[in-house]
Amino acid sequence: MKRINLPLSLVAILLVTVGCQSTAIVPGQYDDAAVYPNVTLSQDSLQKALGFQEPALSRTENDLMRVTVPVRARSNEMLNIEYRVIWLDRDGAPVRPEMIWTPLRLEPRQPQYVSAAASSPAATNYNIQFRWGRP
User: Fold this and answer.
1) Which of 25, 29, 31, 69 is most buried, by the most CB atoms less than 10 A from its CB?
2) Which runs of E-coded beta strand occur in the chain?
3) Measured between alpha carbons, how far is 87 from 124 in angstroms, rounded to an integer?
4) In what order do the strands lie in the sheet with 39-41?
């Protein structure tokens, strides 16, 4: 068997290089979702609790974007939830001012309609966020 004699400094550099590649600290992972959904839920439990139909887009008299989303409780219990709409401009940045969380009480299995209009003509897209109601 043939032995290769490498200088100790070269071996040290190779070990450090290989070690650095495997222990690099990544501050966060890139979210590779191609497109974010327009309706998002803050907790997994909301996915089973709520039912949605396709959002409808329209324009107000002032030519502002308006969205309406049918939502209902899928259970036989009344649900207290909150929602807000984040309006986005053509670059995907939030349009200010952002909407505050709005409480919504859902009767069992009865559809309700969440509707909101943008605060600015710069809004070209939206994200409706739902979470459980806060006390």
Assistant:
1) 69
2) 39-41, 50-52, 56-59, 65-73, 79-88, 102-106, 112-117, 125-132
3) 7
4) 39-41, 125-132, 79-88, 102-106
Q: Which two tokens stand for residue 10?
A: 């070269």
Taking only Cα atoms into account, the Rg of the chain, rounded to an integer number of angstroms, comes to 25
Give me 103's structure tokens: 């409480």
- pLDDT reported for residue 7: 60
Six token digits for residue 47: 């996915």
> Cα separation of 13 and 31, whole Å?
34
Q: How far does CA 134 lie from the centroid of its chain?
A: 19
User: 84-109: b or e for each residue (b if 16 or more CB lie within 10 Å)?
Assistant: bbebbbeeeeebeeebeeeeeebeee
Nearest by Cα to 99 from 78, 80, 123, 76: 123
Q: Are 114 and 104 in contact (CB under 8 A)?
A: yes
pLDDT tier for residue 20 given thresholds of 50, 70 and 90: very low
